[in-house]
Design goal:
The protein has 274 residues and is mainly α. The chain contains nine helices and no strands.
C-alpha cells in the first residue's frame, strides 16, 4: 500500500509539472516577449532617404525632371531634398514613439544624412553655385569626426552630438534649398556677384534693386534669384564656421575625457597596489 501511495504521489507531481509547462507555453502564466523585426518602419524610412540620393543627383545633372514630370529640374530637386530632410526628423520620432530604436537605425541614420547632404553640396559645386573649398571643409569634417568617434569608442568614450553640429546641419539644408531656388529662377549670379571677395554685396546693382523691390513688395523672379543666392551663400558660411568650431569642440571633449579616463585608471592602479 505504501508503494502504491508513493507511485500515486509521484504520478500526480509529474502531471502537475507537465500541466504547468503547458500553461507556460500557452501564455497563461508568463508571456513570451515579442521578437523584434530586424527592419522596422523607421528603418524603411531611413533606407528610403538613402535610395532618394541618386534620384536627386540625376534630377539635378540631367534633364530628367522636365522629361519625366514636365517641371523644372531644380524645383523637383527642392521637393526631393525637403521631403528627404523631413524624413530625417520623422524616422527618429517614430522610432522613439513606437519603441523601435535599433542598432541598424543608429547605423543607417547618420549614413543617410551624410550621403544626402554630401551629394547635394557636390552637385552645387558642379553647378557653380557653391565654392569647392567650402564643400571640402564640410565633407572633410564629417570624415574627421567619424574617425574621432571610432577612436573614442575604442577607448570607451562616447562623443554625443553637440548643438553646434545641429546648427551646422540646419545651415547646410538652408544653403542647399536657397541656392537651388536661386538657380530655379534662371541663370544664377556669377560667383560672389563678380566680386573678388564675398563682401560688399550691397554695392552690387542687382542686390540694391532686389532690396528696393522688397521694400515695395514687388519682387521679381530676378529678385528671388538674388535673395536665394545671398541666403544660400550666407548659410554656407555659417555651415563652414560651425563645422570648424564644432570639430574643435569634439576634439576638446575627447582630449578631456581621455585625460579623465587615464587619471581614473592611474588612481585605481595606485589603490590596488596599496
Amino acid at each position: 500500500m505504501a508503494i502504491e501511495n508513493y507511485e500515486a504521489e509521484h504520478l500526480n507531481g509529474f502531471s502537475a509539472s507537465i500541466f504547468g509547462l503547458i500553461l507556460n507555453f500557452s501564455g497563461s502564466e508568463t508571456k513570451l516577449e515579442p521578437r523584434r523585426k530586424p527592419v522596422n518602419l523607421p528603418n524603411y524610412i531611413t533606407i528610403g532617404r538613402i535610395v532618394v540620393v541618386p534620384l536627386l543627383v540625376v534630377v539635378l545633372l540631367t534633364p530628367s525632371g522636365e522629361t519625366w514630370f514636365g517641371i523644372n529640374g531644380y524645383v523637383l530637386a527642392i521637393v526631393i531634398f525637403l521631403v528627404a530632410s523631413l524624413t530625417d526628423i520623422l524616422d527618429g520620432q517614430l522610432a522613439r514613439r513606437r519603441n523601435q530604436v535599433s542598432n541598424l537605425g543608429k547605423l543607417l541614420d547618420p549614413i543617410a544624412d551624410k550621403l544626402l547632404i554630401s551629394a547635394a553640396l557636390i552637385v552645387l559645386v558642379e553647378k557653380h553655385l557653391a565654392p569647392s573649398w567650402a564643400v571640402v571643409v564640410i565633407i572633410g569634417r564629417e570624415f574627421v569626426i567619424s574617425g574621432l568617434r571610432s577612436v573614442a569608442a575604442s577607448d570607451g568614450i562616447i562623443i554625443q552630438a553637440q548643438a553646434l553640429g545641429k546648427l551646422k546641419m540646419w545651415a547646410q539644408c538652408v544653403a542647399v534649398v536657397a541656392l537651388l531656388i536661386a538657380a530655379a529662377n534662371g541663370t544664377p549670379p556669377v560667383s560672389n556677384f563678380g566680386l573678388d571677395y564675398p563682401a560688399a554685396f550691397w554695392e552690387v546693382p542687382e542686390v540694391r534693386t532686389a532690396f528696393a523691390d522688397l521694400s515695395g513688395f514687388s519682387l521679381t523672379s530676378n529678385d528671388w534669384k538674388v535673395f536665394g543666392y545671398l541666403v544660400g551663400r550666407g548659410a554656407l558660411w555659417v555651415a563652414v564656421i560651425t563645422a570648424i568650431w564644432s570639430m574643435y569642440g569634439y576634439f576638446s571633449h575627447f582630449l578631456r575625457e581621455r585625460k579623465r579616463v587615464a587619471a581614473a585608471v592611474t588612481r585605481e592602479s595606485i589603490e590596488t597596489i596599496k
